[in-house]
Design goal:
Blueprint (H helix, E strand, L loop, with lengths): L3 H13 L12 H20 L1 H5 L8 H26 L5 H9 L17 H21 L5 H29 L3 H20 L11 H6 L7 H19 L9 E2 L6 E2 L5 H11 L3 H14 L1 H19 L1
Antiparallel strand pairs: 1-2
Helix pairs in contact: 2-4, 4-7, 6-7, 6-8, 6-10
This protein binds 3-hydroxybutanoyl-coenzyme A.
The site of 3-hydroxybutanoyl-coenzyme A has 28 residues, from α2, α4, α6 and α9.
Length: about 325
C-alpha cells in the first residue's frame, strides 16, 4: 500500500505531465478542498451575477435588447448550475455549498456588489465584466481538474456572446447623442476599476495562487490575467471613443503591455469583506430566493422518494 508521500509525488508527476485529474482519481485532500472553494465561489458568482443585470430586463430600451439581456441572464444561471454540478463531483452536496454562501462563509465575486444605475451599465458589464471573465475562464478551460475544465469550454463560448453584446451596446450609445455618449462614459468610469479588481488581489497578496499554479488549477497568476484583460480592453475602448478612467494608462514600448495606475486595494478588500455598495442587497435577494424556493425543493425530493419506493416495490 503506497503511503501518502508516494501518492502525492505520483499526483504531482501527473500534474507536471499535463494529465487531467478526474473525480475518481486519487488527489491530495488540499487539492480537493481548494477546488471546492474556488469552483463553488465561481458558481455563487454566476448566480449572484444575475441580479445586477436582472434589474434591467424590464427596463430594456427595445424588445431586441430585452431578448438579448434575458438570454444572457439565463446563460449565467446555466453557468452557475454547471459549475455547482462540477463542484459536487468533489464529494460535496449542493445544499452544503449553497449553505456556505447563504451563511456568509463563502465568497462571490466582488464585482457584483456594485449598482447598475443606467442602461449603459448593461454594456459596461458585458464588455468589461464578461471580458475579464473570458480572460480568466479561457485559462481555466485548460486547468488540471477535468469537470472544471470541461465546464469552461461551453461557458467560454457563451461568454463571448455576452462580451460582444455588451460592447455593441456601448458602441451604439457612442454613436448616439451627447446624453447617450455621456451615459456610456459614466458607466465605464464606474465599472472599469471594479473589473480590474475582479481578477483578485495582486500576486504578492494572494495566499492561494502559488499552490493553485503548482497544481495547474490556475495557469496564470492574478496579475498576469489582469494585464491580459487591460491589454485587450484598451484598444477596444479606443475603437469606440470610450476613455478609460486611468490617466496613468500608457503603452510601454519595451514590454508592449499597458502600464496602469494604482489599484484601490482598500476598496477591493472592503467590498470582499461585505461593505460594498450592494453586498447586503445581494445577500438578502439570495436568501429570500432560497426561502421562496424551499417548497419546490421539498416537492421534488418527495417526488423522487415516491418514485424510488415505486421502483423498489
Ligand atoms: N471577489 C471576491 N473575493 C475575491 C476576489 C474577488 N474578485 N478575488 C479574490 N478573492 C478572495 C479569494 O476567494 C480568497 O479568499 P478565500 O481564500 O477565503 O476564498 C482571497 O480573496 C485571496 O485571493 P486569492 O487570489 O488568493 O484567491 P484565488 O487564488 O482563489 O484567486 C480568483 C481569486 C482569481 C477569483 C480565483 O478564485 C478564480 O479564478 N476563480 C474562478 C473564476 C471566478 O470565480 N470568477 C468570478 C467571476 S464569475 C463571472 O465573472 C461570471 C461571468 O459570467 C460574468
Amino acid at each position: 500500500m503506497e503511503n501518502t508521500a508516494e501518492l502525492e509525488k505520483k499526483f504531482q508527476e501527473r500534474i507536471d505531465h499535463g494529465e487531467v485529474i478526474e473525480p475518481k482519481d486519487w488527489m491530495p485532500e488540499r487539492y480537493r478542498k481548494q477546488l471546492i472553494r474556488m469552483m463553488s465561489q465561481h458558481a455563487h458568482s454566476e448566480i449572484v451575477g444575475m441580479l445586477p443585470e436582472g434589474n434591467w430586463i424590464t427596463r430594456a430600451p427595445s424588445l431586441r435588447r430585452k431578448v438579448v439581456l434575458l438570454a444572457k441572464v439565463q446563460d449565467e444561471a446555466g453557468h452557475g448550475l454547471y459549475i455547482y454540478s462540477g463542484t459536487e463531483t468533489l464529494g460535496v452536496s449542493r445544499e452544503e455549498i449553497v449553505g456556505e454562501l447563504l451563511s456568509g462563509k463563502a465568497k462571490y465575486s466582488s464585482i457584483f456588489n456594485y449598482p447598475t444605475l443606467t442602461w449603459a451599465d448593461m454594456g459596461a458589464i458585458g464588455w468589461l465584466v464578461d471580458g475579464a471573465a473570458i480572460v480568466n475562464q479561457t485559462a481555466l478551460a485548460k486547468c488540471s481538474y477535468g469537470p472544471y475544465a470541461r465546464a469552461m469550454v461551453r461557458i467560454c463560448k457563451e461568454e463571448n456572446f455576452h462580451h460582444k453584446q455588451g460592447y455593441e451596446i456601448l458602441a451604439t450609445l457612442m454613436r448616439g447623442n451627447e446624453a447617450q455618449k455621456n451615459m456610456a462614459q459614466d458607466a465605464v468610469n464606474r465599472w472599469w476599476w471594479p473589473s480590474v479588481m475582479m481578477l483578485g488581489p495582486s500576486d504578492k497578496d494572494s495566499p492561494n495562487t502559488a499552490e493553485l499554479m503548482r497544481w495547474r488549477v490556475k495557469l496564470h497568476t492574478n496579475d498576469e490575467l489582469r494585464q491580459r484583460f487591460i491589454d485587450r480592453s484598451v484598444p477596444q475602448a479606443e475603437n469606440i471613443g470610450i476613455k478609460i478612467p486611468d490617466d496613468k494608462l500608457k503603452l510601454n514600448p519595451e514590454t508592449k503591455h499597458y502600464d496602469f495606475g494604482e489599484v484601490n486595494w482598500e476598496e477591493f478588500w472592503n467590498v470582499v469583506k461585505g461593505n460594498g455598495p450592494c453586498n447586503r442587497e445581494r445577500m438578502k435577494a439570495r436568501r429570500d430566493a432560497d426561502e421562496r424556493g424551499k417548497w419546490v425543493r421539498e416537492a421534488a425530493e418527495a417526488h423522487r422518494e415516491k418514485k424510488e419506493k415505486k421502483i423498489a416495490a
